[in-house]
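Table S5 (text form). Sequence records supplied for joint modeling of the two-component complex.
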Amino acid sequence: MNQEIDKFSDLKSQKNISVMIIGGGKISEQHLIALSVLKDITVTGICDLSPALSQFTAERFGIANWFTDYKSMLSECDAKVVHVLTPPATHKRIVKDCLESGRHVIVEKPIATSNKEFRELYDFALSKGLHLIENHNYRFNRPIVDLENAVREGKIGAVKEIEVRLLLNIGGGRYADSNLPHASHQLPAGVIHEFITHLAYLLLNFLPETDVDNFDKVRAAWQNHTGGSLFKYDDLDAFILSKDVHSRLRFSCHQWPDGFHVKICGTEGTAEAELFHPICHITTKRSIGQHLTPLFNSIDKAKAIRRAGFRSLWNKIRNKGAYEGLGKFLELTYKSFLNGEEPPVSFQQMDEASRLIDSLLLKENSL
Amino acid sequence: MKLLITGAGGFLGQYVVSEAVRRSHDVKVLLRPATKTIPKSWEEHPKIEIVKADLRSSKGLVEIVSGVDCVIHLAASKAGDLYEQLGGTVIATENLLNAMTEAGINRITMTSSFSVYEYLKRLTWSSIDESSPLAINRLDRDEYCQTKLLQEQITTNYAEKKGWQCTILRPGVIFGRDNLWTARLGMQAGSRLWISTGLFAKLPLTYVENCAEAIVMASEQTGSEKITILNIVDGKSPTQLSYMRELRKNMSSKPLILPVLWIFMRFLARLAWLVNLFFFKGTAKIPGLFVPSRIHARSKPLFYKNKKIVTQLNWKPRFSWKEGIQRAVSDDELTLIPNQMEKETLASAEKKT
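The corresponding structure-token record, covering 720 residues in total, follows.
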């Protein structure tokens, strides 16, 4: 990929990168908050189908131009990068048009509804010498970074088991609104498709072998426990076996409380991270002997919980939620643009995540 | 007149439908697609036509709007985050206005809210009327205020551009059955404790049946003014304390009223604002009760006038606020609509007498 990166030289010499946003919804607010604290970035245009929403967002974030037609924005507005923050089913068309106009594209997950579609878009971006990057924000949240460090430093030994568990009450609110069904219900995995990219890239982040073709077993139980016709699936329980590493992906909207949990078990210990109430805790072998080890691990855990409690409160006051990783992701992405380095989310990571999702959806892999 | 009433399934909407039918209008009632319970008196009523659509989508709206003389637009989102309220209030209104344009409808009565006014910069014990300035720092206000301001703005822009007759109604606190508590009173700490944040501050109350009548009357008015703005308040406004006491009288559980002086609340909010400004550069998230612009909007002692609506519509609220509470807690059927036959029988009986 490094040879290809050299092509993206138009951003290297820039002192300031101009950016446009397509989509004025809730995730757009998070991107704009994250961009507002980055130096060297100027948002020059915002586009949404609703004129009121587009204008409101422009006024709120001090954006000079607002549009209701993204094609007009692409032709009238000066910018090097476009953030595509529209529903996933629209990505293919919009991303292609942005690339066609010669803009680099950062796009919300899932970048495409299949790996084939992703490859098509990526090849097109490459042919134009442009970046195409999917948002993998949770990889940059502090607990996940701590988890990565623990694994890399060998604190828990060789990884043997990984569990990524997302519990989200989508049984109420926008996803369960039968008056105006959410666009995600039309995706291949229904509403779970909105979140599955997070589960996939977090799992692959810790798996020693990341090529889906080399996995020994992929099995997925897609369920609709809510019943009715609104939800295609509201529950996923997937099992992945890759050599001697066992992995599990879980999505449920029928449990309480909400949480986003990653647990890694190794030969020398266990590392756990929670993203909604940020905490990372490691249980590991100690030199103080087998009788005292559990006691010291418990004391460590209690300390971690206390620290996490204060951090949660602090984050609440500072208005920082689970999107903290988005700021870091964008900061590193734009830094890589300016320095001509490889972006923090690589082609391989995007490709493998979308291939894993495809594989989970394959009929022959269903339980 | 043939009226289309959006948000008809809501708290206020049901009373507006009843009032419109009582006043002999033909009513097209717009309900959301998943609405399952429809009042019995609406079903098969000769004056009521039930249509279903979600205003957040433009699908089918032109057909629904076609053929009406006036749209009474009550639909709005009160709950959820900013984006849910933008969808349910602002985008919904945009879709409705576009459909009206396409269908050639040129008359709209829209309910906004008292929350759109500026409160922070206003003097204590000053009067609020239709000429009072609107919120200055809109982004400091809550989601409801922000979206209501946008809704008013786009509606008046459309009306001005297209030359429509447009009435913007700004009701104060609408109370009635199942809606007797308001954020302007303070906080409910469980069922046993009420924390009052502005004891002697007046409440801009309007009882739901009074308000519904004012809305229908506003839709009937024909005047030279293209855009009219009217506040809806019943008149004599009680203080928070007197309203709370009256409410308490009518409840089986008798919550304790804990008074917190307005001046103390104002001091706390000011302090929180200063801490936020100096230590967090204004980026900290503070509970609404400690955001100056919001606590001023809820609890500042002010006077509320209804002179314009009373003069212009010749509206006289039928029920006092105390009667309103009595009706709300009674078992009476408040939204019952006499069907045509009953009405005719009633009329002939009255004639004979």
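Note: Chain B touches chain A at residues 32-34, 54, 56-57, 80-84, 86, 90-91, 94, 139, 150, 153-154, 280, 283-286 (CB under 8 Å).
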